[in-house]
Amino acid sequence: MMASLRGLPGTVWLLGVISLLNDAASEMVYPLLPLFLATTLGAGPRVIGLIEGLAEAASSLLKLVSGVISDRTRRAKPFVVWGYGVAGVARTLIAAATGWWFVLVCRLADRIGKGLRSSPRDALLGRAVSPQERGLAFGFHRAMDNAGAVLGPLAAAALLAAGLELRTVFWCAGVPALMVLVLSFRVRESAPPAAPVAPATRFNWHLREFPPRFRRYLLILGLFMLGNSSNLFLILRAREFGVPQAQVPLMWSLMSLVAALLLTPLSALSDRVGRRRLILSGWAIYAVLYLVLARGGWPTWTVWGVFVAYGVFIAATEGAEKALVADLVPPAQLGTAFGWYHLTLGVTLLPASLLFGVFWESVSPALAFGFGAGCAVAASLLLAFWLPDHDD
């Protein structure tokens, strides 16, 4: 495994380090955001669902646009630089919020930056390695991202333990964000695909130019994501089960540590046993965890176990899902394909988060988590039986 990692191109390593630092900055803010909204700004689950849903929907639309443009221009670096820069500034400015509407604006800008960079960056990764290394490369990148998600909450917890306020912690997140911007200028463009990028990259909404398996894959992912609302709801549920506020960043960090440790080996395993098998195992874990969270009255230690298992779910799915995208489309269409992938995930997050918030407040958290588990089961059945091994 270590020899394979050392053999990865420099582009993969640099993008991995950038993701580590960027996620460290992000996760100094993100796990504390629901607490900031609820205690400082007086916002409830519906507002959180609205903020996260709108932010991710805007981000995902831009991921498609940036993916199409990067394919047509064969340039990805400008999107990477601007994307990380905009996100870093907007995320830090949350510290100045006096109302939930300002947090919404900052989150929108943060996600716009993510929308600019994500698809071109993933296309860079997909083109930088051979098909036999895609699982390893995407898994390593996501592992570095989750390693940052370990460091970020730990730094936030240390700052809170030192007596700093939430707003001060958010301002401190600007330091790693600045480092990310500096490193992003060092990213090199990968060689353009040999095949000419022509009609396949025209912006359209019908997807007819993509293979049937890819279109089916997007539909299945959309169904799963309809029950996969913002992870901020996991934090709210943990607080309902009695997890102290000071332990929330530590719990989030533990989840990310599990994901960081397992993402590379599990994603590399998908290079050998197949992407679908690994994704199905991850979705099964997700369904079980949501059913556990649907039932109230669990002791605090059980919630810690849920977050650990959630890290396993992340490790089994994040790298394999992206590698499967790269498997299903030609190299010249990777930017556009990843744009559609991210659009599917983000657009469904808006109704997913809004539904989750409404179910939570109007009926019960049990219905909200039960709905998420049901979507995971249905998507798993479709992935197992409706996605053939070859195009029709």
TrEMBL record:
Residues 11-391 form the Major facilitator superfamily (MFS) profile domain. Keywords: Membrane, Transmembrane, Transmembrane helix. It is a multi-pass membrane protein. GO terms for cellular component: membrane. One of its GO terms (molecular function) is transmembrane transporter activity. This is MFS transporter. It is found in: Membrane. The chain crosses the membrane at residues 81-104, 143-162, 168-185, 217-236, 248-266, 278-295, 301-320, 340-360, 366-387. Its main location: membrane. It comes from the Bacteria. InterPro entries: MFS, MFS_dom, MFS_trans_sf, Sugar_transporter_CS.
